[in-house]
Design goal:
alpha+beta, Methylamine Dehydrogenase, Chain H, 5-stranded antiparallel β-sheet, 4-stranded antiparallel β-sheet, 6 helices, globular
């Protein structure tokens, strides 16, 4: 077919050809400029000799990427754009992608053996017993110093301040080297043992990291076959288990069995990890897998080994009988708030009393002995206190005090030490619900830092109650139950906010985790 003359070409075609010519000219000019600047592509390197090939390091094995449904070309299939067929094809592809995403986040109900869920590149003791003895933030600016430690005249307080301020970062590895979880840390704690520091951390995508601080760093290893190779840095031994499909929001070691850890997750389930047998079983989940009930907290009373208590992001509070068979009714679920419950805490000595902190700005106290009637049965609310902004968490200590952290940039301490004398149905007065101490504290974590929570030492070895909380200036603050600051812990190598801080229940050990999954440990 003869080519059309310029006069016969449409205005669109003339413009298209002109653009093509301009782009080709520009490309040639860029190639000339790159060649003159020495940036042109180099010729392929000559094949390495056999000796050089022997020195080459073995390729690093990478985790196989998850295969997602692939998009296909409508043009190659002859499907006309904006047609009914094209719309149906787009809808089908969108549904396939949505199904893949749902499957990735769907909880798994079967028992999980640790050897099957260990994350690639991490270790697990194959014998199955891990417990064998073996304002705007201003990073780096201190608000509590050695001078503050010396100023007090209280002998007991001064001695405790000196002891807490003298805690040092664990010397084995810098915090930047101890990546205990693959993703952002949301929950963290110590195993109750006092023989060594065993730290557990749960992350954003459902992985649980285990770090043993009794390990000794190995010496650096040099590759003798290659004089030019660098020394390989020693790395800490960390076990990482993928036990949930979504965020691990909280966990607690059973007060009745130190080998049992209960973990709560946004995938709506609670798992019981048996650290001696090396297996994780589903202790609780909604009967239907379609029910989405992300969990924000889990606790077990020291007086009842068969009941789990939990809270949800949907404003619910539940208790579950662990003796009930899967798929049967063994759970009571109560709606306590129209908004997210960020956390709850049982009174250690009187577990029928519990506290919730929620997005509706309230700390509320409840009594499980009194169930009120209405549209739905629920525990009796016996007291409430409103903050200016949302309350992130509430935690009881052994003396009956509660510490909360709020987005109004305060840590509030309430005194409920008289809870043992409360009658059923008591209504707490406004004075009883007023904080005994208010501590100014920057709690503006933003989007990328895990919410700050005040966490008590559950069994202090002296008469002074104390708690720790992350500091946006990349420290961890330690306070007494009456608001006196004891220490501000930091150190070299802390490159992010240690936002998730936790005391060992009886030892003066403090651990904290960052948004990059790194661990800071003071002992």
């Amino acid at each position: 077919m003869p080519k059309k003359s310029a006069a016969e070409l449409s205005e669109y075609e003339l413009q298209r050809q002109e653009n093509i010519a301009k782009n080709q000219a520009l490309l040639r000019q860029l190639q000339l400029e790159a060649a003159s600047a020495g940036l042109a592509p180099k010729k392929p390197a000559r094949p390495a000799s056999n000796n050089a090939a022997k020195k080459r390091k073995a390729p690093v094995q990478r985790i196989k990427e998850e295969v997602q449904p692939r998009r296909t070309s409508s043009r190659l299939k002859g499907i006309v754009a904006d047609s009914e067929v094209a719309r149906r094809k787009a809808e089908e592809e969108s549904e396939l992608l949505a199904q893949a995403e749902r499957a990735k986040r769907q909880r798994v109900s079967a028992d999980l053996r640790f050897s099957d869920v260990v994350v690639a590149g991490k270790d697990w003791d194959q014998s199955g017993n891990f417990l064998r003895i073996v304002g705007p933030a201003n990073p780096g600016e201190r608000t509590f110093s050695a001078q503050d430690v010396k100023e007090t005249t209280d002998t007991e307080l001064k001695e405790l301040r000196e002891r807490m301020s003298n805690l040092d970062l664990w010397q084995g590895f810098e915090p930047s080297r101890i990546k205990i979880t693959p993703e952002r840390i949301y929950s963290l704690g110590f195993h109750p043992t006092t023989e060594k520091a065993l730290v557990f951390a749960g992350d954003k995508l459902g992985s649980l990291g285990l770090f043993d601080a009794s390990q000794q760093p190995t010496s650096t290893i040099k590759n003798e076959d290659d004089d030019e190779s660098d020394d390989e840095e020693a790395t800490p031994s960390i076990t990482t288990l993928k036990i949930h499909t979504r965020t691990i929001s909280a966990f607690q070691f059973s007060p009745h069995d130190q080998n049992a850890l209960y973990s709560a997750s946004y995938d709506s389930s609670i798992r019981k990890l048996d650290l001696q047998k090396g297996v994780a079983i589903e202790a609780y989940a909604p009967i239907s897998k379609d029910d989405d009930e992300p969990l924000s907290g889990v606790e077990m009373s020291q007086f009842d080994p068969n009941t789990l208590f939990f809270s949800t992001l949907n404003g619910n509070f539940g208790r579950h009988d662990t003796r009930s068979k899967p798929g049967t009714s063994g759970t009571n679920l109560y709606t306590l708030s129209e908004k997210k419950i960020g956390g709850f805490s049982l009174h250690p000595a009187h577990p029928h009393i519990f506290a919730t902190a929620s997005l509706d700005r309230y700390l509320r106290i409840w009594d499980l002995r009194m169930l009120k009637d209405g549209k739905e049965e629920a525990p009796m609310e016996i007291g409430a206190h409103e903050s200016r902004l949302s309350v992130s968490h509430a935690a009881f200590n052994s003396a009956g005090q509660i510490a909360t952290a709020s987005y109004d940039d305060t840590v509030k301490i309430y005194d409920f030490s008289s809870a043992g004398s409360w009658d059923k149905g008591v209504e707490l007065s406004e004075d009883q619900m007023t904080p005994s101490t208010i501590i100014p504290h920057n709690n503006q974590t933003g989007r990328w830092v895990t919410i700050l929570r005040a966490q008590w030492q559950l069994q202090p070895q002296d008469s002074i109650q104390r708690f720790c909380i992350g500091n946006m200036n990349r420290f961890v603050d330690v306070y007494t139950g009456d608001g006196q600051q004891l220490a501000q812990l930091g150190g070299e190598g802390i490159t992010a906010v240690p936002s998730v801080a936790q005391f060992h229940q009886s030892q003066d050990w403090i651990a904290a985790g960052t948004a990059s999954g790194k661990l800071c440990l003071w002992m």
